[in-house]
Design a protein that fits this description.
Helix content is 52%, strand content 17%. By secondary structure, the chain is of the alpha+beta class. Helix 9 packs across helix 10.
């Protein structure tokens, strides 16, 4: 480990800690500082959740070279490819080269030229109850500059997890506000989570089964989901259950 690694690790831990109360502008600044510490000249964090019809829904933060980050985000949108596949199956960081660029004919050609980057992929696994996926990408045109990143990978893994928690927390706040979720709603969903049917829930809550069905219907409408199982899954994604 290089002599600057302990300092870099300490800086990263401090940055990760400051994310707890950060707004979006502050989070971008933190990502930018963390990128520079590791020798990167571009950084992208993506938080990916399943959408309707097997589509993926992305939220992201980018720093430093926003043009490159926008290109990478577009490629991930067009097809998750190996980068997200790695994050989905492994929590281990890996050093990669920039992915191939699709040609007009549908084949792929290796990207080349002065803007080609090496990149560390640092996955941020979600808790078992959530189906979201986080991935921190730290890239540089000079691969040797990323040696600092290699030396303090545990600190970057912690940063990636903190970024994922930041996105989850923001999504949770937005969902609670948008759907006007109450403690009574979450109590209802916890019963569904445990596999309880309407009659059993009605007994526990001292209500009628048809009342429970009506409450679930209204809750599903507010959450924008098709059924109560999807309502549970959505709330699990954001750590509400």
């Amino acid at each position: 480990m290089s002599t600057q690694s302990p300092t870099a690790a300490a800086e990263l831990c401090e940055l990760a800690g400051s994310l707890v109360v950060a707004d979006e502008a502050s989070a971008i600044s933190i990502l930018e500082l963390a990128s520079r510490v590791g020798g990167a000249d571009a950084a992208l964090f993506v938080w990916v959740v399943p959408g309707h019809n097997e589509h993926l829904w992305f939220r992201s933060l980018s720093a430093l070279d926003h043009r490159w980050c926008a290109t990478m985000l577009r490629r991930l949108h067009e097809g998750p490819g190996n980068w997200l596949a790695h994050a989905a199956r492994s929590s281990e960081p890996v050093l990669v080269r920039e992915p191939a660029e699709p040609s007009a004919g549908g084949s792929t050609t290796l990207t080349d030229g002065p803007d080609v980057r090496a990149a560390w992929l640092v996955p941020a696994p979600s808790p078992q109850s959530s189906d979201a996926l986080g991935l921190l990408i730290l890239a540089s045109t000079d691969e040797t500059r990323l040696d600092v990143t290699r030396a303090v990978l545990p600190a970057y893994r912690a940063l990636a997890l903190t970024l994922a928690e930041w996105f989850q927390r923001r999504g949770r706040e937005e969902l609670v506000q948008r759907a006007h979720l109450t403690d009574r709603d979450l109590e209802l969903l916890r019963h569904e989570q445990m596999g309880h049917g309407s009659k059993r829930i009605a007994t526990a809550l001292q209500a009628e089964a048809k009342t429970i069905d009506c409450r679930f219907h209204r809750l599903n409408v507010r959450l924008g989901v098709a059924n109560r199982r999807d309502a549970v899954r959505l709330c699990q994604r954001y750590g509400l259950l």
